[in-house]
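Form 7-S
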Amino acid sequence: MVFGLLMLVGAVRFMARGWIRELYVLPRFHFTYDGFGWVRPLPEWGLWLVFVALAALSLAIALGFAYRLSMGAFCLLFTYVELLDKTTYLNHYYFISVLSLLLLFLPLNGRASLDTRLGWATPRATVPAWMVWIVRLQLGFVYFYAGLAKLNRDWLLDAQPLRIWLHARTATPLIGLLGGREFLPHGAIALQIIGSIDDDGYLRIVDRKKDMILVSGFNVYPNEVEAAMAEHPDVLECAVVGLPDANSGEKVALYVVPKKPVSKEELSKFAEQNLAGYKRPRHIEFRDTLPKTNVGKILRRELRDEALKETAK
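Output:
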């Protein structure tokens, strides 16, 4: 029941926040997984049907109605959505696909379910011990490897991304003010570089960890957004920072020094054509110059601090 109710809330939340259109309809290009390039997004109305079906199947799972059919269909549809674009990957989503496949083979409709009331399932008060242990094993894998992944400076010293989440929710009654205190998301500023190894084995520098923007749980690297927006013929130079947002934790803010007059609407449309939904700037501001070091490096931190001071007024 709990699994079904959680998935129902998740599906409704996804639809209510407009993420279907933002993540799967507006982008003109999707980064697919190796071997799954044939998995393509349906038209917008089709994607809405998929999420409505996910919500309905989640409710059926919670009620124990046509349990195996509902769980199997849920697993297929949920996995379909996750295969559409790997830029929206979250390990939580991968876990849901694996867990729903596992639960499909367990008799979870044997008690307090509509299936037993309708005579579609045999009532049972117990299940074999191995069924309990296989679920525990799967959960153990998740927490064990999640723990290993957090044995780094980001989590242990810089308290990231917890620091970002708490700072974005300082308006929460009673406890919100604590989110802005350094002693809660403890940490120290450190030079952190994010990189990736390409198919040829070369290391490619992506960005600095402290400049990373966390939008609804998705990582956004300023260098990537800046490179995309700098391709606009009317942009001389630009900088991207993350600003607190009540809904998504952080939002992407773009500061532009124009080469010649250009509107925010033109830049927003250009972003729609070249960036995934969660990477698009939600705040665009024009500047005559950008703050820089003596060697010409743009100081993103000054732009962010200035914006936060303006917000606090």
